[in-house]
Structure formats: C-alpha cells, structure tokens
Amino acid sequence: MSEINFAAAKTAVLVIDMQNDNVLAEGAFADFGAAEHATQQDVINNVNRVLEAARKAGAPIFHNRIISYPQRPVGGSNAPIFNLIGPESLKDGSWGAEILKDIEVRDDEIVLDRMRMSAFHGTSLDAMLRNLGIENVIVVGVWTNMAVEHTVRDAADYGYNAAIVSDATSSINAEWHQAALSYALTNIATITDVASVEAGLK
Question: Which residue from 141, 103, 136, 133 is spatially nearest to 202, judged by alpha carbons?
Fold first, then answer.
C-alpha cells in the first residue's frame, strides 16, 4: 500500500454510503453479498479508525447517503444500478437509508444526500471543500467499485488529490472490490490502507 502525507488542514474524509441497507445482514442488499464482504473487510471498524484519525488531526468529515424517493421513479432507469435502488431499498426516512448506528456523525460533520453514484453529483460537496481550502480527499465506505469509485473519479476530475482506503471500503464481493483497486483506480488515486492514514494524516 502507498503511504500518504496529507496536511490535515487541506484534507477531508468522505464517508460513502455507510447505511444499513448497504452493509448489514438485515439490509436490502445482503443477498447480493454486500454484508458478507463488509464483514470480511471489517469495514465498520476500519472506517471508524479513519474517522478517529481525522478527528484527532482536525480534518473535516463529510458523510454521504444515497437515497430513493418512493413517491415517483425519480431515480431513473437509464442504468442497471439505478434499477437496484428503491422503491423500498434506501428509502428516504427508512431504517435502511439511515447511517449505521456504529458510525458516529458528530455535530461538526456534515451529511449530504444524493440519488447518483458520486458524492459530488447533485450535492454542494465541491463548493464546501473549496470553501474550506481542501486539496486532498480520503475516501472510505461502500461500494468500492460503484459509489466509492465514482466519487474518487470525480474528485480527481475536480482537481483534488484522492486517496482510497483499501481496507476501509467494501463491495458485494472480493473480486469486484479488487478489480476497482487493482485496475480501475490505479491511475486515478493513491491506494492506501488504514494504518497509512493513521500514520500519514498530520
């Protein structure tokens, strides 16, 4: 894994879709393998380790949720992934859409909701990061080859130095997870791990 050396004052942590439906055995996507792979990755504990390192260093944290609105099919059906979301899974106001109780959201941490894969799409995330003088983003959460990957790609396109934390991310299986880390993102972001974040976030 690559080491990072990010100044906390110019670094933010982006927490992607750590929601009940996406991670837990009782969630809507457990049958897809999401809960099993999250357990294999120890993703809840590892995300919390990254959050603790960020809090100690004073780096801002942004939590993201992907949600569906059951009133009308506003999420669209132009791509297969959008057909998987809703009308009941990740429904706004439901248990499934809530952030995991084991992932604390503190008073100085912002939660952004969206309907698309990237945390930048349809939110004010870019403006918020720029207003804070952020140059680097550390991305954790689920799923590695979907929302996490989209967020990392957009971060690079927006001009940020992006790092993805390999053991603080998970997907629906190890193969898809590893495909994103070993192929799709190798020329986009720094692939790092929790221990390197803890050591390198100054």
Answer: 136
Structural domain spans, the chain: 8-200
Token pair of 48, please? 């919390």
Mind listing the pLDDT tens digit for each residue in 15-28? 999 999 999 999 99
Instruction: Compute CA distances 6 → 14, 109, 113, 126, 134, whole Å.
Output: 14, 19, 27, 18, 11
Amino acid at 54: A
Spans in the chain with pLDDT lower than 70: 1
CATH of domain 8-200: 3.40.50.850
pLDDT at 77: 83
State residue 118's pLDDT score.
Answer: 98
> What's the whole-model pTM score?
0.96
